[in-house]
C-alpha cells in the first residue's frame, strides 16, 4: 500500500481541487482529508457519513472555587498566562497540568476535552476519512495522525492500493503529522513569489523528514517568468516538476457544482490533471 | 489598536489585504506590521523591509543533571506531552514535543532539571519605509508555531496601528495570532471552499468575542452564497475586491495592490475607517 500526500505550504494553490480529481480517476484507493481545521474535500466528494466518532484529546484545567484559597501560585507559575483572577481561560490553557500538580489545596483538576470529530464516509469514489477539529482547539497533529491511522486500517482491510491524502497548508505540527512515512509528497505550487517562497519551505520539511517529493505548478500561465524560475529551481534541487496545469475558471465552476474538475470539463486542465495522476500512479508502482 | 487579518481558507488574499491596508494608512498613522503566519510568512515579499535585528526564539526544554538525578520518574509522570521519559537509569528528552510548561523542573524533588532553550524559530525586525515591521519564521522541521507567534506579538506597540497577518485555518496558531485584537478582518472569496472555511473562522472569532467584518476578494468568481451567508448572519462586508487578472499579476510579482493600482488606496482608507467605527462602537456599546 502506498500513501500519496498533497501539500503546498501556501494555502489556496489548488491542493483540494487536485485531490478531488485524483479521487475521480484513481482506482483502488481511500481518501484522507488531513486538513482538519479547514477541511474542504467533502465539498467535492459529497460523502455520506457511515461512522461518526468523538475526538477526545488534551486536557483543560478547572479550578474548584469552593476549594481555592486564592493563593495565586497557579497564575504565577502558568507559562501560558491562562489563569487570571483564579479562573482558567480554556482557550489559552495548553493542558500541561502544571497548576494541578502544584496547587497546595488540590483545587485544580484536569478535564479531558472533546477536541473534535472524525468520520468514515462513503463517496461514489470510495471511502473517505475526514475530521473536524473543534473551534479554537489544539492537537490538530494528533487528529491528523488519527485520520491517517484509520485510513490505513481501512485500506489494509479492503486491500486498497493507495491512500490519497489532502494535506494542510503551512509547515508546522499538522503538516509534520501528515508527512511522516508517506511514500510520496506532491507539492502544488503557483508561480507567485509567495507560492515559490512557501514551496521552498515545504520542500525543506519533506527533505528534513526524508520524504521524496515532486512539484506540480498550478496556474502555470499566470506568470511565465516565475514559472521558469520554479522550473530552474527544481532542476537545481533535483526535484521533478511532474505537471504544469494552466489557470482555468472551470476549476471554480466545478467547485460551485460540487464536483471534481475532471468530471466537469475535458479541457486542458482536466487532461493535465489526469496525466499527472497517471504519472504518479506509475511512479508509486515504480 | 490591533487589527488582525485571518481567513479560514488559505490563499484568499490575507497578505494582499494586510499589506495594502498598512501602506494605505501609513502617511496618516504610525503603522506596525506583525506577520504572525510564522509557518509561511509572506508579508516581507510585498513590504520589502530592511531587517535590522534578528533574534532566536527558544522553548525552554528540560536539561537533566544526571549527577543529581535519582531516576525517580516524577518528571515523566507530570509531563503531559511525553517529552521526557525515564528508562531504568536513563532520562530521555524529546525537545520537539516539549511545550515548555516548566512542570518537570519545578516538580523534580532533586532539583536536577534546569531549563535550556531549544530554538524553534527566529524573529526578524526592521522598517519598511515608515512602517515598523516584524515577522516570525518557524524553523524547518519544528512543529510548534504558537511560541513563535507569542514572541512576535510581544513586540506589539499600543501607540501604533498594529496589523497582524495570521495563518490560514482555525486552530491554535490562528487563535494565538488573533486573540486580544481589537478587530478581526476575515478575508474570503465567494466560492464553496471560501464559504465553508469562513463559517469556521466566524465561529472562531465569535468564541473570542471580538468585533469582525469580511473582505470579499475575487468577486465575480464562484457564486452568491457567501454574500447571502453574511447578510443572514448580519456580518458586515467591509470591502469587495473584484476578480481581476491584473491584480493576480501584481500579486505574483510581489507588488502590493495599492502600489500597482493606486486607485485602490481610497478603498483601503475607507476600510480602515469602517474598522475604526466598529472598534469605537464596541467600546461605547460593548
Summarize model confidence as the mean pLDDT of chain B: 95
Number of domains of chain B: 2
CATH class of the largest domain in chain A: Alpha Beta
General form of chain A: elongated
How does the overall form of chain B come out from the CA principal axes?
Answer: elongated
**Approximately how much helix is present in the residues of chain A?**
25-40%
Q: SSE order of chain B in H/E notation?
A: EHEHEHEEHEEHEHEHEHEHHH
CATH superfamily of the largest domain in chain B: P-loop containing nucleotide triphosphate hydrolases
Largest sheet of chain A: 9 strands, mixed
Separate helix tally of chain A: 11
Q: Kindly, what is the distance between the CA atoms of the first and last residues of chain B, rounded to a whole number of angstroms?
A: 16 Å
Strand order of the largest sheet of chain B: 3-6-7-2-8-1-9-10-11
The most extensive interface between chains reads: A-B, 61 and 58 residues
Residues in β-strands, percent of chain A: 25-35%
Q: Output the helix-strand order of chain A.
A: EHEHEHEEHEEHEHEHEHEHHH
Helix share bin of chain B: 25-40%
CATH homologous superfamily classification of the largest domain in chain A:
P-loop containing nucleotide triphosphate hydrolases
The rounded Rg of chain A comes to 22 Å
Q: Quick one: CATH class of the largest domain in chain B?
A: Alpha Beta
- Per the CATH scheme, the topology name of the largest domain in chain B is Rossmann fold
CATH architectural name of the largest domain in chain A: 3-Layer(aba) Sandwich
